[in-house]
From TrEMBL:
It comes from Streptomyces brevispora. Pfam families: F5_F8_type_C. Residues 55-67 have a biased composition (Polar residues). This is Discoidin domain-containing protein. Residues 55-76, 709-728 are annotated as: Disordered. Residues 36-172 form the F5/8 type C domain. InterPro entries: FA58C (IPR000421), Galactose-bd-like_sf (IPR008979), SACTE_4363 (IPR059186).
Amino acid sequence: MYAPPVFHRTLPSTGRRRTGVLAAVAGLVVSLLAIVPSAPASAAPSLLSQGKTVTASSQENYGTPATSAVDGDNGTRWSSAASDPQWLKVDLGSAASVSQIALKWETAYAKSYRIEFSADNNTWSTAYSTTTGHGGNETLNLSGTARYVRLTGTERATQYGYSLWEFQVFGTTGGDPGGPQIPGGGDLGPNVLVFDPSTPNIQAKVDEIFKQQESAQFGTRRYALMFKPGTYNNINAQIGFYTSIAGLGLKPDDTTFNGDVTVDAGWFNGNATQNFWRSAENLALNPVNGTDRWAVSQAAPFRRMHVKGGLNLAPNGYGWASGGYIADSKIDGQVAPYSQQQWYTRDSSIGSWGNGVWNMTFSGVEGAPAQSFPEPPYTTLNNTPVSREKPFLYLDGNNYKVFVPAKRTNARGVSWNGTPQGESIPLSQFYVVKPGATAATINAAVQQGLHLLFTPGIYHVNQTINIDRANTVVLGLGLATIIPDNGVTAIKVGDVDGVKLAGLLVDAGTQNSQVLVQVGPTGASADHSANPTTVQDVFIRVGGAGAGKATTGMVINNDDTIIDHTWLWRADHGDGVGWETNRSDYGLQVNGDDVLATGLFVEHFNKYDVRWSGENGKTIFFQNEKAYDAPNQAAVQNGGTKGYAAYKVDDSVTTHEGWGLGSYCYFNVDPTIRQGHGFEAPVKPGVKFHDLLVVSLGGQGQYEHVINNTGSPTSGTSTVPSNVVSFP
């Protein structure tokens, strides 16, 4: 809950890259049907709007979000930018008979405004309008049916923006002719294990899960281990495949282990290069021996953690590890990568950093080593241009909620110092999805106005999950896995603001999907810079758990999207693996403008692993391996070019920038294969790359250049990188 902010006004910037929301509202043509205010409905009305999904044309600052107008707290408020028109819209979740609107204005009120109703968030009718608003508390008795209710202010009474303590909609539900409503909330299912400090035999239960999951690389079980706020003594939570561990406090320090959260590689003879698909979030650790061990590779995020000691990223015995991602975390001691080949750390605080192998990249990290690529191989940005941390489940008293952190610009350090900034959404506003749920039911829940919380499990879908409602949160627990059964796209996001996709594994089905995850329709053009869609810990897999095919893993069409940690993987081992068996030509295709990738891992696709066609894209850290199983040079030949680049920027692009990017080859089927370059980009002043490298792993195939025709070839079997510090 926000404390009431200080009454302070700042005029908004009028400069926008694309046509903004306000201009769109001003130019909106709708069919308006006046409804004369009438007496209240005879049935006793209920408060329908409190805690519901709410959006606004703008907000004055982080302390005055739209949600404050429907939170039931007369000490918090929504306030807009200081311009006309502005709007506030609440989604009631289903059709309702509206009988009354109560407006509780702050000093900055509307002189002229209208109340509008809609059944579909598209066609609007005017239920009430005035040019003589008096501010204070206004009660409007109306009559009409609506799912969406919007207040549109057209003339302010002060020089400030519009400001409401509360926007309350009263009425009765049951007016939806579409059938029964899907309930929100409920229990979290059998695969979410919730502990408190008094729970008996915690260690034994955690050990039991680990025994099942330690080597179950392509198994079907999924688990989330959730710990209520408090202190837990003598815990060593070993984390295996498809297991997430998390605290249920609002901050990491609310849930403290006097003990460890451990990932090691005993199951794989001390080699951590296959320690995938697991996570740790929102906990404070006092490691027993002073240093916690988190020896992982791809798809194993370490988020919102506070380690009151050191962090060792290598397995016992210092065997290889090949990946890694830390965000929004504080490590009081040293982070020691040892044998980790590459790592990305974002918006965190560390005591120090131990060493580097090929590519260690930092953005917004307090305590990060200075820029020094390639000796040592540190790429360091003082800030992250734009970031918004991943949503997470927490307990507010005895009530589950999902906290959605606020967007930050030029971020540095953790987001949870002081009062966390963001929005809390009650679990009652989520459809808690459990195995067996159909895509039709999931889509109906979204259309009804619910967010989605996928409990741990595997979900087969025979139609696309469509997320067309702005600000929808889609959060998976325990590596919840979605598999399209008949060649459909698993998830599509509309050209809308603020969707959050997080914590999901999308596994290709046996029938080829053209795309597995698509953010935005083809030709998307709306400006989402104020409220971008985020894709966080969303992983793609083609093959490995069985034969699967997809032409492209992920397509980003929406402008301003943030891709924050993804691993798109065409399997090189497991079941259903072969050059044509798990065919997937492209990993990531970016068509939108102003897309930012922070922590991009893409591997083994048959052609381009990443192809970037949108303008003003940015990537901070890229890790890639070309497809191991290419049968011969002809199979990868790209016209006159030897092989498809790991990361290609289209010739039409005029502005693009990347930092800390690496591509590796291991053509073990035919070690004579030559890759012309790892990276390909037009030579233009606005296209810039910093700290690039290519590596031949043990001499199994070679690169001739790093980017275009720049950079020395790799050679021999010594696995020594070829580096380019700056391009062009």
